[in-house]
Design a protein that fits this description.
alpha+beta; 4-stranded antiparallel β-sheet; 39% strand; elongated
Length: 268
């Protein structure tokens, strides 16, 4: 006990020194372990393990794109009366009528007829030199005048040219062909096979003509055989026929060139 009382300070100092030496010996292992942990953590942050993407549901975005591609048509003319109040006009007999019931909007298309270019082979004869001569008839119903629209007959030999077509070839016996082939002289250059039967001509639609009617109050008008370019007097205003198609007529006001599309009234 006397030894401990005399040397306890040295003993404590020795124990502390031993602890310090042990700590210094453990420190390299601790540092190495911490460096390894830091390396693993940094590697996980820089190159993380990413799960593969699953199939993305694009139903809603695709539906939105389809809706955005479809234009929305709002009718602020015929159904909306807040921004477009209905005007009224006085008819020729004095009574008031809605503006939509007069003018070009009150015109009805009662009938539309197609206008054809017709080419027929009427007959085949033999000339004095023994060469066959072919008689063609051409009818242009869409011609600007009635005189030009009448059927015209001419004799043509193979290779010859008329104002309408060029005679190309004969199919079958020259004196009794089944068909003859012609090429139109217009910009289309269309090839037409014309049968040897004047009752069955080759034909092509080249335009339309329409029958119109205007019936408002005591004013009743009817126009027949109306073609593009015609001018109509409707309720005291002049309207030009811009176009006639198989199911509609387009009119344009002479004062402001406003267009009016009138559909064929199939119920009339």
């Amino acid at each position: 006990m006397d030894f401990l009382r005399k040397h306890y300070e040295k003993i404590l100092l020795g124990l502390v020194l031993v602890g310090l030496v042990g700590a210094l010996g453990y420190l390299p292992f601790k540092i190495s372990n911490e460096n390894e942990k830091l390396t693993q953590m940094s590697g996980g942050l820089i190159t993380p393990k990413v799960k593969p993407l699953t199939n993305i549901d694009l139903t809603m975005p695709e539906a939105g794109l389809k809706r955005a591609a479809t234009p929305v048509a709002y009718d602020f003319a015929s159904t909306n009366k807040l921004f477009n109040p209905m005007p009224w006009q006085r008819a020729p007999d004095g009574h008031l009528v809605r503006a939509s019931s007069t003018g070009p909007t009150a015109v009805t298309v009662t009938n539309i007829t197609a206008l054809f270019l017709k080419i027929s082979l009427d007959a085949v004869t033999v000339s004095s030199d023994g060469a066959p001569v072919y008689y063609f008839s051409v009818e242009r119903q869409n011609a600007p005048t009635k005189a030009l629209a009448q059927k015209r007959t001419s004799s043509v030999k193979i290779g010859e040219k008329t104002p309408t077509f060029t005679f190309k070839e004969v199919q079958g016996p020259p004196g009794a062909p089944t068909n003859v082939v012609v090429q139109l002289n217009d910009t289309t250059g269309e090839i037409a096979s014309v049968p040897n039967d004047k009752e069955k001509p080759w034909k092509r639609i080249e335009g339309y003509t329409a029958d119109l009617k205007y019936d408002v109050g005591k004013t009743v008008k009817a126009w027949r055989d109306v073609r593009a370019g015609a001018v109509l007097d409707i309720n005291g205003e002049r309207y030009r026929v811009v176009a006639v198609s198989k199911d509609e007529v387009i009119l344009a006001a002479s004062n402001n060139d406003k267009k009016f599309t009138i559909k064929l009234n199939s119920s009339t």
